[in-house]
Specification:
This protein is of the alpha+beta class. It is built from 14 helices and twelve strands. Helix 1 crosses helix 2. It is globular, with a radius of gyration of 26 Å.
């Protein structure tokens, strides 16, 4: 039997503390100090310092984990007005901790993996959003201490553990859905209306939103730069033909993307996740075989598949990008200007986007609606004051991987001011959320039938003790 030393994160997408997750705010700051009575008084009642709340498979959920999660919930607004309320809250939290553990264990059985770099990036994003809610670094650190975190490092470690567990839960749900092992659940209009009416006062305020369609013009390398990159990748391929076992070392030394530090590791991928040229080669390779050079919009690649399982492969690559410079950037800007001119004169967006949009940029062609406050700064500046259907002047967006800018030609397709949500606006979100929660509930109930679960802590009985 194994003990987990850190509290788990409650189920992502499941109802939390009796409220649907569509009403919960994201990026909750560290809980402020509260006068709330602890969920369990482990000294006054003569209890040991800690105890076992539940056993799930070979994992133990501690009473202290329940205490921590309950107190965080109370500090974040969960109402507790009596001992009965507190016992109900504790029971709900314990049930959700059990549910989360069942999903994490299923993720491990399904060989779902979470990359450390992905976890670190999520923690960095959380810290950035939370810091923005405090006036100073000192105020932020004070809030951490009041929440029981001695240092920022402790908070980051805890958040990292929680993020990893959450991503494992999300990953296993996605995998089981892809494999057809999670069936859809219908939600009636009456249920949607009931949920909206019950929680409309707790919904976040509607932010000002904007929608657009765009053509992203990449800064392309010159033919001379492409030849130099091709010569470089060819030399690396020749090196690998002599020493194929050095693939990871060469990737760490030469590859020109974020997988470099991981020896080119791209993790597990299903068909369609990579650009077509890369995808075709990756799924054609046998494990351990070095591919020929593959050219994509990103540059030149050498690929090696490490492991294969049904419908998925685990691969590595080495990427060499052709160099681009300011002359290439000026050429891209002129092209973006000409696209805007043709589009404004009545040119077909579909034709222009097929011909010029950089599909390797990761930028969507259409963004139906997006919060204005979350727009990257170049978008905010360019779209300020824009009207519906306006095609704004092309603007630059940094392309960190290339070290230059790419250029965006965009048309405004939707505008909405801040205010209260209506049922019509929120209907699809509620339907999707309720459906997801019910699918998850059905899955977890099945997992409970297959896994040893023993609840050792009864909040109701605990509340009755003197």
């Amino acid at each position: 039997m194994m003990l987990r030393l850190a509290p788990t994160l409650l189920l992502t997408g499941a109802a939390l503390l009796a409220a649907p997750s569509f009403v919960l705010a994201q990026g909750t700051p560290p809980a402020a100090k509260t006068d709330a009575k602890p969920a369990v008084d482990t000294t006054a009642k003569g209890l040991p310092l800690d105890g076992i709340a539940a056993v799930v498979g070979d994992q133990v959920i501690l009473v202290s984990e329940v205490v921590t999660a309950v107190n965080q919930a109370r500090a974040s607004g969960a109402k507790v007005e009596s001992a009965k309320d507190l016992a109900k809250l504790e029971a709900d939290v314990l049930e959700q901790l059990i549910d989360a553990e069942l999903l994490v264990q299923k993720a491990k059985l399904e060989k779902v993996e979470v990359q450390d770099a992905e976890v670190l990036s999520s923690v960095d994003d959380q810290e950035k959003k939370i810091r923005q809610q405090f006036k100073s670094d000192a105020e932020f650190k004070t809030a951490l201490k009041e929440a029981g975190m001695g240092t920022l490092e402790e908070w980051r470690k805890l958040q990292g553990e929680q993020v990893k567990r959450t991503k494992l839960q999300q990953g296993v749900m996605q995998k089981l859905q892809r494999d057809g092992k999670v069936t859809s659940v219908n939600v009636s209009e009456e249920e949607i209306t009931e949920a909206f009416n019950a929680y409309r006062d707790r919904l976040p305020k509607k932010e000002a939103r904007i929608g657009l369609r765009q053509i992203v013009v990449a800064t392309r390398p010159s033919e001379d730069a492409k030849k130099k990159a091709r010569d470089k990748i060819d030399s690396l391929h020749a090196e690998l033909e002599k020493r194929p076992e050095d693939f990871e070392l060469i990737a760490k030394r030469e590859s020109m993307d974020g997988s470099r530090e991981l020896g080119g590791d791209l993790g597990w991928n299903r068909r369609g996740r990579m650009v077509p040229e890369f995808d075709r080669m990756m799924f054609a390779l046998n494990p351990g075989v070095i591919s020929p050079v593959v050219e994509t919009a990103f540059g030149f690649h050498i690929i090696r598949v490490d492991r294969v399982q049904p419908a998925e492969v685990k691969a590595r690559h080495i990427l060499i990008r052709p160099r681009v410079d300011t002359a290439d950037e000026r050429r891209a800007k002129l092209l973006a200007d000409s696209i805007a001119t043709v589009w404004r004169a009545g040119g077909s967006y579909d034709s222009l986007s097929v011909k010029y949009h950089d599909n390797g940029s990761g930028e969507d062609k259409s963004i139906p609606e997006y919060p204005r406050s979350e727009l990257p700064e170049p978008y905010r500046n360019a779209l300020e004051g824009a009207t519906i259907n306006q095609i704004v002047d092309p603007f630059a967006m940094p392309d960190p991987s290339a070290g230059v800018s790419k250029f965006v030609v965009a048309q405004v397709t939707f505008l909405d001011e801040a205010g209260q949500w209506t049922l019509a606006e929120y209907r699809d979100r509620i339907r999707d959320q309720l459906s997801e929660e019910r699918k998850m509930r059905r899955l977890i109930d099945n997992l409970k039938k297959q896994t040893y679960v023993s609840v050792r802590y009864d909040p109701a009985k605990q509340a009755m003790q003197p």
